[in-house]
Amino acid sequence: MRLDYAGPLPEPIGFLLLPRFSMMAFFSAVEPLRIANRISGRTLFEWRLISEDGGPVTASNGMTLLADQDIEARYHPASVAVCSGFDPERYLSRGLMRWLHRLDGAGCALGGLDTGGFLLAAAGLLEGERVTLHWESLPAFRERFPAIETSDELFEVGKRRFSCAGGAAAMDMALDVIARRHGQRLAIDVSEQLIHERMRTRHDAQRMTQARRLETHSPRLAEAVDVMERHLETPLTLDEVARRSGVSLRQLQRLFERELGRSPRDWYLGLRLERARYLLEETDLEVLSVGLACGFTSASSFARAFRQHFGASPREVRRG
What we know:
By secondary structure, this protein is an alpha/beta fold. 47% of the residues lie in helices and 13% in strands. It has helices at residues 23-40, 94-105, 116-122, 138-144, 169-182, 184-193, 210-214, 219-230, 238-245, 249-260, 264-282, 287-293, 299-310, 314-319; strands at residues 11-17, 45-50, 57-58, 64-65, 79-84, 109-114, 130-132, 149-151, 155-157, 161-164. Strands 2-1-5-6-10-9 form a six-stranded mixed sheet, with helices on both faces. The mean pLDDT is 92.
């Protein structure tokens, strides 16, 4: 998946599978490579599945894949993609960290599918790099690694690092790599074989437009919710949300009541609490740090609002 590969064919690519990895992201990355080989009539890419101990790995959907080798086997890939899913840092052992650093030292390009960037960052391999992850994981990553530059792009491909948002974004990244290596025509043919009607660029949005997600035709409401989502750590006043959305406070209140059946204050609080629940479930941040990251000024106010919304305390959700 590296940007500047100019070695012999087939290009060797390793996929490191970690427990609970995203099967969707993995297959979305591999299938374009397989189809490119078939359409071109040549083996342009070859890949191996790697697990830490060489044993089978179970994905988040419960399906299990057999690995071709462990991390100690002799293998010199041009690129290795870290395939992970929920709670990725849990699986970063000392041996795995040494192996990743050894690959990096040998000139191997390293990347992450879905949440794979968490492992590379925890291993100290993303300094000075720009990384993207699944939109749901980006806030947790930014809290955990504030010094690392992130983006909301579908994928990022650099000389020695690559990353994608997971899911179908892995397909778009693979198609981009095929186009760079072997021409746009082949990438288009592969895309058509996948019934992928448009090759998305890295700049395409990860998510549907706010209006489509809310099922509203009101651009002002969509803008207001977007403003709220961008300001969860330091919440704005409703007057400021209204101002940035181009409406009065009274109009804002009417819009939310009519279109969403909730007040803007309740909607905004719900967004912050949903973000808090995700951080509690998917990161090791302290409960107070989670509250602060979601705009609460004290542990007591956070716990009170959280219990009222979810019927359980932040600590109970974390233990569950």
